[in-house]
Amino acid sequence: METLAWMQAKLPEFLKDLEAFVRRESPSKDLKGLMEAAAFLEEAFGPLQGRLSRKDTPLGPILLLKREGEGAPVLVLCHYDTVHPRGSFPEPFRVERDRAVGPGVYDMKGGIVALLYALRHAEATGRKLPPLEILFTPDEEIGSKESRPLIEAAARKARAVLVLEPPTAEGDLKVARKGVGLYRLKALGKAAHQGVEPEKGVNAILELAHQIVRVAALEDREKGTTLGPNVVAGGTVSNVVAEEAWVEIDLRAWTLEEVKRVEEGLKSLTPILPGARLELSGGLNRPPMEPTAESLALFEKARTIGEALGLSLRPGRVGGGSDGNFTAALGVPTLDGLGLFGGDAHQKTEYVVVSEIPRRTALLAELLYAL
Ligand SMILES: [Zn+2]
Q1: Which of the listed residues 91, 160, 285, 371 has the most CB atoms within 10 Å of its CB?
Q2: Closest residue by Cα to residue 318 from 216, 166, 182
Q3: Any idea which residues are catalytic in this one (predicted)?
Q4: What is the pLDDT of residue 120?
Q5: How far apart are CA 134 and CA 82, in angstroms?
Q6: Separation of 265 CA from ligand 1 center, angstroms?
Q7: How far from chain centre, in Å, is Cα 329?
Q8: 206 alpha carbon to ligand 1 midpoint, in Å?
Q9: Cα(226) to centroid of ligand 1, in Å?
Q10: pLDDT band per the 50, 70, 90 thresholds, residue 234
């Protein structure tokens, strides 16, 4: 395929751009680093066709590249923050045999550079792209608080959403992601002197211990619904009956139906010890990304293109969330995992496979042409 040959010829240049981008370390909330990475994006994408605009937020700049055209646009989601504190890697970028290693190289700066080359390919060859809206966001790894309203507004008028998160470990695209909820259950009791009059107290830790067992019983592993009571705290000193205790619970589920079942279960918990009270707070951070006929049709397009490139892609399902969860929940066909092939996401050994870069980049370009 000609596109593949073009991408292969561009590989050395691609690696230089990837290195320049990855070297500008941009952990979430590190405003200086995020500004520098945003400046790279402006330099790289600015000269391309379309209008690049910028909105500064307390969590870093959000960039939008708009290319006009006929009909509803295709929305492309990219985040340029990473989970790695500055200086986590011995070197911010290195190539070892067939691996390029660096903070965010895989999740998802590599995907962003792939998009850059897909757009450059379109301009070099004059091939027609659909109207595009491309969002570059600085806060995905910390829940997309600032970006979410813009992502949802853009998705509502989009014909499809492509997410440049990396593919699964096996190289598959992502059509389903679990929803992610975070809840805090607090038990309130009554303090009393543990030695003098313990009978006047109500032990919040004991109350919470009973409740945690009930919370865990809401799991349904067969349906893939998990509940992790993973942080717990309570009490003050050992000779005072504990007045307060709380637990933080991580919920993951494939469907909204399961989320609702669990939430109802959490809300209907009642105190066991006389005089104890319970308070529940928190909620769903990212709704489940459930596959629909339209999103599977989008996947099928990508699969066919992949086949011509020698890739056998399957519709992957993963437990972690992305900004694709927001757009899929609005009913907009969403395909995720269109970034670069590699591994060790969120680890200090995060890498992309160099020899696979041209195929993944060609896949992205051809998919854009096909939309
Ligand atoms: Zn990511």
Answers
A1: 160
A2: 166
A3: 81, 140 (proton acceptor)
A4: 98
A5: 19
A6: 31
A7: 14
A8: 39
A9: 22
A10: very high
Token pair listed for 50: 């379309």
pLDDT of residue 221: 96
Ligand 1 center from residue 122 Cα (angstroms): 25
235 shares a domain with 338: no
Q: Of 286, 310, 333, which residue constitutes the final position of a domain?
A: 286
* 323 in active site: no
User: What is the CA(88)–ligand 1 centre distance, in A?
Assistant: 17
Q: Which residue in 181, 188, 187 sits closest to 249, CA to CA?
A: 181
Q: Do 56 and 156 reside in the same domain of the chain?
A: yes
What is the rounded distance in angstroms from the CA atom of residue 287 to the CA atom of residue 331? 12
Instruction: Tell me the average pLDDT of the chain.
Output: 97
Count of domains observed in the chain: 2
d(CA 165, CA 180): 17
Environment of ion ligand 1 (residues, CB < 5 A): 107-108, 165
Model confidence over 254-301: pLDDT tens digits? Answer: 999 999 999 999 999 999 999 999 999 999 989 999 999 999 999 999
Among candidate residues 17, 30, 139, 140, the one labeled active-site is: 140
138-181 tens-digit pLDDT: 999 999 999 999 999 999 999 999 999 999 999 999 999 999 99
Domain around 122: 2-177+289-370
Distance CA 219, CA 247 (A): 16
Residue 94: what pLDDT? 97
Q: Which of 17, 19, 30, 81 is catalytic?
A: 81
Q: How far apart are CA 301 and CA 309, in angstroms?
A: 13
Q: Residue 354 Cα, ligand 1 centroid: separation in angstroms?
A: 19
Give 205-223 pLDDT, tens digit per residue. Answer: 999 999 999 999 999 999 9
- Give the closest residue to 95 by CA, choosing from 17, 167, 15: 15
Kindly state whether residues 187 and 281 are assigned to the same domain.
yes
Residue by residue, DSSP assigns 216-283 as: HTT-BGGGTBEEEEEEEEE-S-TTB---EEEEEEEEEESSHHHHHHHHHHHHT----STT-EEEEEEE
Distance 108 CA to ligand 1 centre (A): 5
